[in-house]
Write a structure and sequence with these properties.
heterodimer, A: mainly beta, 4-stranded antiparallel β-sheet, 32 strands, 40% strand, B: mainly alpha, 10 helices, 2 strands, protein serine/threonine phosphatase inhibitor activity (chain B), PABIR family member 2 (chain B), PBIR1/2/3 (chain B), protein phosphatase regulator activity (chain A), Serine/threonine-protein phosphatase 2A 55 kDa regulatory subunit B (chain A)
């Protein structure tokens, strides 16, 4: 069951033995961050060769990993820009007098079936299917047009020739193949491709819709938690995901910290859950902010499909799908913030939505925090590490030094006190290569790529 | 428990704000809508009461952020749950209050319209009264218009690391993908005018203005919204060999949305309405 990554060793992998090194950083250096450049989603494709990012300006940038060079074996290739396109534009809903942001909320890759790559990208209202394909030949020698497209003067055409294909510089085309619009009253928070590769779901605050990839003008509504009397509304949907293997199963999380698993075989409408996962509240930790901090910001199945992981404001919880009463593992991401919740409420940081991800063999989970810190938890060896994504540590192949935050009292050397954390530098989006120890970590407007040290 | 006066004020605020976030309301765009009132709140009322609302917005923010932990745990207005409840008009009485306000606002509107439209010698005076502010924003239906989106390819050259046109020949001088693309509202007229001058750069002018994208794909068309989107993606260099005297003939042979002969190229003007005599190169 244990898989190996790179040359880091065998079954006895401990997280301490994995040393993370800086590999690359993408994005502008200046501190003045343009709003449009704020990264809003990061996603590897199924092979890990492509890495897609979406930003607040509605653009998608896809990086491609260079093949390993023969000169330097065992040195992974760099990720370079492969394609970039404007996915969504701002729109205006004149009925409600509201601007619809072009920010890309989520990107999901479809499994690759032919030479082209397909991905779904979504903003608050509209999901689009994009085809990314390569072109390396161009037709030349038309009779009526010059090669640059201008029409030739008919008088100069004296002979007839057959156009031929000539090689050209590789060009990557992105074209929108489907636009799935107008199915969500509220803001779309998640999309998830089904393992059947034909359908996908999209969820907003109150509803989940099931789409067929080929059909754009309608979708099935499979979950609707909007009550007849809005007074009775107590929670909203925050995230949703399809099971990686079982095409009939999906989950959705709520703002109250509960996860519902639904089976589409039970009925057409999945308002009644098949399983209900919720941990009873710890009375010691109860506070005015309990409900806010228990709101789940991300939910992810493990690759195996046996477990799922949820992220709330302060912790990561791993759930066994066979046990609904409580999580099997809980990891505190930044417990030192528990006493600061009042100020975090004041500056709205308490509403930040952190994502989380699994590594390829489900042995390690990762999530972001503040001050450009991110955290990894090794499930097997119960160890965790805090690392930082910053330009100071950006010499190629330089090993990242673990960080520590002191929660009070004596501050040891090299520790950072809670009060000096920069809460504007938050890492909300992280992604782990599905097959290798390569991670992508997004700060506000920069994308960092780290990899484990190869001997 | 609730101060209904305060709550209705809050509600009025929250109803008008985007559901996405309470925090990001400052730059929110509003547009006057002359459509009949279909939903609860009239759009007209929002526009006309804008000045008043701006003050209220700030005060509401203060109200919603008590410095100490409020005694009632129910008041958590920044959560999505609360925003949705407010939008849907939870309280019947508040809904009626809001409706009353709309009706009154509508009456005010019709009165002020009558005043400003009536012929009188006091026109200057009347124009000072509230009139709908013109907002330069193109309304787009929630469904994408058929001229944009589907079928439009965007091509990128990994070796050159720039966007290219779909025939692969004419690279466009786009800054790195991490920077914002062009200007969304750039009029197609600008592109065409600048192209007559060719690659000569004028001081202070951005590359994107001097080298607008040219369509070499036959008769399609600078007229469609394609051009504005192309302008968003930036502009193309035309191959140098074409830029001598043959420019004018090139321009006249391509489709253009109007009479292009005699139009001087724009220098660094952003406005499509700049008078012709100002457009000579500096």
């Amino acid at each position: 069951m244990d898989k190996h990554f790179g040359t880091s060793g065998g079954v006895g992998d401990e997280i301490d033995e994995v040393q993370w090194c800086f590999s690359q950083v993408k994005g502008a250096i200046d501190d003045d961050v343009a709003d449009a450049d704020i990264i809003s989603t990061v996603e590897f494709n199924h092979s890990g060769e492509l890495l897609a990012t979406g930003d607040k300006g509605g653009r998608v940038v896809i990086f491609q990993q260079e093949p390993e060079s023969k000169n330097q074996p065992q040195c992974r290739g760099d990720y370079n820009v492969y394609s970039t396109f404007q996915s969504h534009e701002p729109e205006f809903d004149y009925l409600k007098s509201l601007e619809i942001e072009e920010k890309i909320n989520k990107i999901r890759w479809l499994p690759q079936k032919n030479a082209a790559h397909f991905l779904l990208s979504t903003n608050d209202k509209t999901i689009k299917l994009w085809k990314i394909s390569e072109r390396d030949k161009r037709p030349e020698g038309y009779n009526l047009k010059e090669d640059d497209g201008r029409y030739r003067d008919p008088n100069t055409v004296t002979t007839l020739r057959v156009p031929i294909f000539r090689p050209m510089d590789l060009m990557v085309e992105a074209s929108p193949r489907r636009v799935y619009a107008n199915a969500h009253t509220y803001h779309i928070n998640s999309i998830s491709v089904n393992s059947d590769c034909e359908t996908y779901l999209s969820s907003d605050d109150l509803r989940i819709n099931l789409w067929h990839l080929e059909i754009t003008d309608r979708s099935f509504n499979i979950v609707d938690i909007k009550p007849a009397n809005m007074e009775e509304l107590t929670e909203v949907i925050t995230a949703s995901a399809f099971h990686p293997n079982q095409c009939n199963t999906f989950v959705y999380s709520s703002s109250k910290g509960a996860i519902r698993l639904c089976d589409m075989r039970m009925s057409a409408l999945c308002d009644n859950h098949a399983k209900f996962f919720e941990e009873p509240e710890d009375p010691n930790n109860r506070s005015f902010f309990s409900e806010i901090t228990s709101s789940i910001s991300d939910v992810n199945f493990s690759h195996s499909g046996r477990y799922m992981m949820t992220r709330d404001y302060l912790s990561i919880k791993i759930w066994d799908l066979n046990m609904e009463t409580r999580p099997v593992e809980t990891y505190q991401v930044h417990e030192y913030l528990r006493s600061k919740l009042c100020s975090l409420y004041e500056n709205d940081c308490i509403f930040d939505k952190f994502e989380c991800c699994w590594n390829g063999n489900d042995s390690v989970v990762m999530t972001g925090s503040y001050n450009n810190f991110f955290r990894m938890f090794d499930r097997g060896y119960r160890r965790d590490v805090t690392l930082e994504a910053s330009r100071e540590n950006s010499k190629p192949q330089s090993v990242l030094k673990p960080r520590k935050v002191s929660s009070g009292g004596k501050r040891k050397k090299d520790e950072i006190s809670v009060d000096s954390l920069d809460f504007n530098k938050k890492i909300l989006h992280t992604a782990w290569h599905p097959l290798d120890n390569v991670i992508a970590v997004a700060t506000t407007n920069n994308l960092y790529i780290f990899q484990d040290k190869l001997n | 428990m609730h101060n209904s006066g305060v709550l209705s004020q809050e509600k009025m605020e929250l109803d008008l704000e985007s559901p996405s976030s309470l925090v990001q309301t400052e730059g929110q765009l509003r547009r006057s809508n002359s459509a009949p009132m279909i939903n609860g709140l009239s759009d007209n009322s929002q526009v006309f009461q804008r000045e008043v609302l701006r003050c209220r917005r700030n005060s509401t923010t203060v109200v919603n952020r008590p410095n100490m932990i409020p005694s009632s745990p129910i008041r958590v207005p920044s959560t999505r749950l609360h925003q949705i409840k407010q939008e849907e008009g939870v309280d019947l009485m508040n809904r009626e209050t809001a409706h009353e306000r709309e009706v009154q606002a509508a009456m005010q509107i019709s009165q002020s319209w009558e005043e400003s439209l009536s012929l009188s010698d006091n026109d200057l005076e009347k124009s000072a009264s509230s009139s709908p502010k013109r907002i330069d924003f193109v309304p787009v239906s929630p469904a994408p218009s058929p001229t944009r989106g589907i079928g439009k390819k965007q091509c990128f050259s990994p070796s050159l690391q720039i966007l290219v046109s779909s025939n692969g020949l004419t690279p466009s001088p786009i800054p790195s993908p991490t920077r914002r693309f062009g200007r969304r509202s750039q009029s197609p007229i600008n592109c065409i005018r600048a192209s007559i001058l060719g690659p000569i750069k004028r001081k202070g002018e951005m590359e994107t203005e001097s080298q607008p994208k040219r369509l070499f794909q036959g008769t399609t068309t600078m007229l469609s919204s394609d051009v504005s989107n192309l302008a968003d993606l930036g502009s193309c260099h035309s191959p140098d060999g074409l830029l001598d005297g043959s420019l004018s003939s090139i321009c006249s042979s391509t489709d253009s949305p109007g009479k292009m002969e005699g139009v001087s190229p724009s220098s660094s003007s952003n406005s499509p309405f700049a008078p012709l005599q100002d457009l000579s190169p500096k």
